[in-house]
Structure formats: structure tokens, C-alpha cells
User: Which sequence fits this backbone?
């Protein structure tokens, strides 16, 4: 009798029905803590911040809990392990009372299955799929429990931090900073929920402004509208009347020799309407001072420079001071919002002609960045700006019509050559 009394456990006096109820409660609590952990850690922090600012009480409490993730995780893990250990002990007692020594193995196997399915896999799956609902509901309970048991959590954190110091781990929780690529992914994913499909593309274009330079979007030198002041007066008047842009470059002899200024057409017509003497000298005096831009200037920087200097147009120069092209404020804005209807430059759609056999005819003047965007290509834009420049850079000579070459997985056949440049080429994706 003495031996039997020594072997008795405190749980032996509890009815089986009560033990089963306690076991179920432990399993439910384990499921709650597991689901809460997964739900809180699965929350979108940007949407959480938005909902919190909108006054959602659950979001506010969840955001506050996530401000100290170490404390939150310590609390959840402490109580999750406590209920799991308690469930294991109770299941063992139930098994032994029902099946004797064999009940230990039976209880272990059944409890493992039940706990994995109903206390781990199922609640965590539900929490991951409905993170907001689970987290916002759970945050109210967790906030209250954390206040009650904070001394225990604080004590456990002391031991944890001491252990981290021993093994040489840093304790500081660095604030997460989103990278440009992560932001790009967020914008792309959010594009599906954006009412206007152009808005995500505009946001992505703004992100690209850090890497895109004025050299990538400028009007090339050979396309700059200009007036040689040394021409006869009739020729100058004819050029003024047929000017394609609202501003033209005035130069002497050539752009390389002397640029006199940039003339606003509105100012030229004002001089013409006034009955004052309308001469070359008055045109030169009416022209604005030339604003020069280094070719490597990022678009973001140049946009700010235009605003600071109150300029709308500038000539792009290389490291030797030679003029390479022209860029306007409208060019930068077009890079963000897309082509304006008033633009006189051909769009990429007009420079690419799709063929029935799957090939395409591409103009040599087509911009490489536009082609990369349109077809998701990865053509090198480092040394060349146009499709013609890319081919010439590859061949290192002006090719004859019918020349075939392969560049970055594209089979290119030269169709038309003129004025020392490739006019058109046929392209087949390999």
C-alpha cells in the first residue's frame, strides 16, 4: 500500500472527463498562440500603418505589439510551450489510466497528430490567409495578457539577451529600410488594384529617374532645330515660319563654333508684329542665354535644376564641351507620364512594325530604352542610345544592306542604310 501511495500522481484523483476538458483547452490555447504569431508576422506593415492612421483599434494595437517583436515573440513562445507541455502531461496520464504502460506510446502518437493538425498547421494556415482578421482580434487579448505577465516576459528577455551577448550577437533591432527594388515590386503588385493602369507605370518611371540621365532622353544633335544667323534673311524668315518647335537655337556658322542663344518663337513673332526694325541683331538680342547641361546628369537632378534656375530647355554637352543634344522640361515630364499628344517626335509604336511571320521592322532611330520597355529586352544602353548605335557599336563599321548579325539573342538583318546610318533593320527573336 505504501508503494502504491508513493506512485500516485496528483492528476490521478482528477476525473477523466475533467482531464479531457483540460486537454482540449490546452490544444485550443496552443492553436490560438500559434495562429496569433503567424497572423501578426504576416501583416503588411504598410497597410497596417494605413489602417492604424485611419483609426482601426485592432490595427493600432497590432502595430504597437510589433514595435517590440522580441517581447511579443517571447510572450507567445512562453505560453505556447507551457500549454503544449501541459497537454503532453495530461495526455500521458489519460493514456496510462486507460491503457496502462502502453497508453504512454498511444497518447504520444495521438497527441502529436492532433497537435500538429489542429494546433499548428490548421491555425497557422488560417492566420496566414486571413492575417488582418486574426491579428486584429488577437491583438486585443494579447495586449491585456502581456500587461499582466510582463514581469515574466521581462525576466525571460534578460536571460535571452545575456545569452545573445555571450555568443556575440548584436541586440540592436535595426529599422527596416525598403530598397528601390522592393518598392518597385510593391508598385508592380499594387498596379492590379490601381484604377488607372498608367499610374503604376508613372511611379516606376519616377523610380527610374535615379538611373536615367539626360543623355538617354535628349534630342540628338542632328535633330536639333536651329538657325544659322549667317544665312541670308529670306532663309532665316523661312525657317522661322516653318519651325517645328516653340524654341530654336541660334548659332553662327555651326553648332560646334558658336551658339548665340535660344530664341523663343513667341518672342520672334512679337518683334515681327511690332513695327520696329526686325533684323538679325534684334533676333540675337531677343534670344535667351544658353543653358548647358552635362550629359551624365540624372533626370531627378536635372528636374530640380530646371526648377531652381527657372529654365525649361538646355543643350547637353559632353566632357569636352561639345554639344551632343538638347533636352527640355517637357522631355523629362514625358519620361514620367508618357508621350504628349503635341510631341513631334515619332513614338516607339511608329518606329516598330510587326510582321505576320513574327519578325519586326525597327527604325534605326528607335530608342533602346523604349525597345527594352516594349519587348522586355535587355539591350545594352551603356554605350549606345539608339538601335542604329547599338548595331554600329557591335559591327564597328557601317554595314551594307543585307548584312546579318546577332546581338543579345536578336537576329538582325540590315534592310536600309543611308546618311552613314542604319535606317531600318529586320529583327527576329531567337
Assistant:
Amino acid at each position: 500500500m505504501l508503494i502504491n501511495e508513493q506512485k500516485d500522481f496528483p492528476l490521478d484523483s482528477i476525473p477523466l472527463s475533467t482531464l479531457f476538458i483540460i486537454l482540449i483547452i490546452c490544444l485550443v490555447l496552443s492553436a490560438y498562440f500559434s495562429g496569433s504569431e503567424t497572423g501578426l508576422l504576416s501583416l503588411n506593415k504598410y497597410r497596417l500603418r494605413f489602417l492604424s492612421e485611419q483609426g482601426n483599434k485592432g490595427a493600432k494595437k497590432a502595430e504597437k505589439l510589433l514595435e517590440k517583436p522580441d517581447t511579443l515573440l517571447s510572450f507567445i513562445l512562453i505560453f505556447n510551450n507551457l500549454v503544449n507541455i501541459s497537454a503532453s502531461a495530461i495526455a500521458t496520464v489519460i493514456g496510462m489510466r486507460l491503457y496502462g504502460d502502453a497508453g504512454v506510446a498511444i497518447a504520444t502518437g495521438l497527441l502529436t497528430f492532433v497537435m500538429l493538425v489542429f494546433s499548428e498547421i490548421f491555425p497557422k494556415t488560417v492566420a496566414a490567409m486571413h492575417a488582418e482578421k486574426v491579428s486584429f482580434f488577437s491583438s486585443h487579448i494579447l495586449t491585456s495578457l502581456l500587461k499582466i505577465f510582463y514581469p515574466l516576459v521581462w525576466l525571460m528577455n534578460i536571460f535571452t539577451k545575456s545569452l545573445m551577448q555571450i555568443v556575440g550577437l548584436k541586440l540592436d533591432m535595426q529599422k527596416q529600410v525598403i530598397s528601390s527594388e522592393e518598392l518597385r515590386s510593391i508598385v508592380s503588385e499594387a498596379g492590379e488594384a490601381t484604377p488607372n493602369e498608367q499610374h503604376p507605370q508613372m511611379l516606376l518611371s519616377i523610380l527610374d529617374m535615379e538611373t536615367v540621365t539626360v543623355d538617354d532622353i535628349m534630342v540628338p544633335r542632328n535633330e536639333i532645330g536651329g538657325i544659322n544667323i549667317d544665312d541670308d534673311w529670306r532663309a532665316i524668315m523661312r525657317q522661322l515660319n516653318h519651325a517645328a518647335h516653340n524654341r530654336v537655337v541660334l548659332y553662327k556658322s555651326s553648332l560646334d563654333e558658336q551658339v548665340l542663344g535660344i530664341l523663343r518663337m513667341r518672342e520672334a513673332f512679337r518683334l515681327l508684329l511690332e513695327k520696329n526694325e526686325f533684323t538679325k541683331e534684334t533676333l540675337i538680342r531677343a534670344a535667351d542665354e544658353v543653358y548647358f547641361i552635362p550629359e551624365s546628369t540624372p533626370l531627378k537632378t536635372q528636374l530640380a535644376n530646371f526648377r531652381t534656375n527657372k529654365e525649361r530647355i538646355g543643350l547637353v554637352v559632353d566632357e569636352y564641351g561639345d554639344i551632343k543634344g538638347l533636352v527640355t522640361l517637357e522631355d523629362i515630364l514625358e519620361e514620367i507620364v508618357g508621350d504628349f499628344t503635341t510631341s513631334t517626335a515619332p513614338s516607339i509604336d511608329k518606329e516598330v512594325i510587326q510582321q505576320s511571320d513574327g519578325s519586326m521592322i525597327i527604325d534605326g532611330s528607335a530608342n533602346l530604352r523604349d525597345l527594352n520597355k516594349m519587348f522586355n529586352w535587355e539591350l545594352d544602353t551603356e554605350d549606345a542610345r539608339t538601335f542604329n548605335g547599338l548595331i554600329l557599336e557591335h559591327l564597328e563599321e557601317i554595314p551594307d544592306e543585307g548584312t546579318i548579325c546577332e546581338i543579345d539573342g536578336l537576329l538582325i538583318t540590315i534592310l536600309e542604310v543611308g546618311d552613314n546610318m542604319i535606317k531600318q533593320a529586320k529583327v527576329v527573336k531567337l
Remarks:
- Residues 236 and 293 are 27 Å apart (CA to CA).
